[in-house]
Write a structure and sequence with these properties.
By secondary structure, the chain is mostly helical. It has 14 helices and no strands.
Length: about 290
């Protein structure tokens, strides 16, 4: 149990709250498009979506810890991660990465043919993200779009096809993740510059980077509004979207270039409420349809 706890801590299992609600978000909208009762897909479909999510995310996080181990060891904020301090060996991390990737492929195969065909591409994207800070300051957007694949995958799992709505969801989630990843990267500006890593805060400085993050979140909200129009969603959904906008506004209000003391509140707490809240209000909208 101690080893399991260490592995879950290494891959930050609690951060699933950021992606999982939007995967379920995509599944519900797909169920609505298919005319399913209360929009909910079948229990087996939901179960395999969850397995695919766990496999993809665990593979991506474990791989990231492997390839970034040297940088993590030199960063005071990350020096106590599992691989730098030796509580998890690279071999164990590789085992977790490969096992999680196989779990993703199994779940995709159990869902439908298109999911299986696309699963290697999704895995390549989320693994490849780990190298992007070495050559582009826009790595935040690469991360965001990788996580934005979650609602797309869930939509395909339910419908067996692609559509405009999941693409818009991917864009919205990608901008949301990229925006708050920029905020989180404010903590590592000097370390990133010293290590030769790239981020928008390291390239532009805190204030311009925060303006880009605000713009990303504004476009995200507009994109989710367009999703509501195309999917013909109702008042519950727009109430949730209004709440999400308020939470994001508060997130930006409490983070200042000269005061980063509340970054963890902005990153963990508020963004968790944004994703869970939007999903819950969508579920209510489907329930009272």
């Amino acid at each position: 149990m101690k080893r399991l706890a260490t592995l879950l801590e290494m891959i930050r299992f609690e951060h699933t709250v950021f992606a999982l609600p939007f995967a379920l978000f995509g599944a519900l909208l797909a169920g609505r498009a298919m005319g399913l009762p209360r929009c909910w897909p079948s229990v087996p479909t939901l179960g395999w979506i969850l397995v695919a999510m766990f496999g993809a995310r665990s593979a991506a996080m474990a791989f990231n810890r492997i390839v970034d181990a040297r940088f993590d060891a030199e960063n005071p904020r990350t020096a106590n991660r599992a691989i730098p301090i030796g509580t998890v060996s690279p071999k164990q991390a590789w085992t977790l990465t490969v096992g999680s990737a196989l779990l993703l492929f199994l779940a995709a195969a159990m869902l439908n043919t298109l999911c299986l065909i696309l699963s290697p591409l999704a895995l390549a994207w989320i693994l490849g993200y780990s190298y992007t800070k070495r050559f582009t300051a826009w790595s935040h957007l690469v991360l965001g779009l990788g996580i934005g694949a979650a609602p797309v995958g869930a939509w395909i799992a339910v419908t067996g096809r692609m559509d405009v709505i999941p693409i818009l969801l991917a864009i919205a989630v990608g901008l949301w993740i990229a925006g708050f990843d920029i905020i989180y990267a404010l903590q590592d500006i000097e370390v990133d510059r010293r290590q030769g890593l790239h981020s928008l805060p390291a390239l532009l400085g805190p204030s311009p980077a925060l303006r880009i993050a605000r713009a990303m979140h504004a476009v995200m909200l507009g994109t989710l509004g367009l999703v509501g129009v195309l999917a013909q969603l109702g008042a519950w959904y727009y109430a949730g979207l209004t709440l999400g906008a308020a939470l994001l506004a508060y997130e930006h209000a409490i983070v200042h270039p000269r005061d980063l003391s509340r970054i963890n509140t902005a990153f963990f707490t508020l963004n968790g409420w944004v994703s869970v809240g939007l999903f819950m209000f969508l579920a209510a909208d489907c329930w009272f349809l």
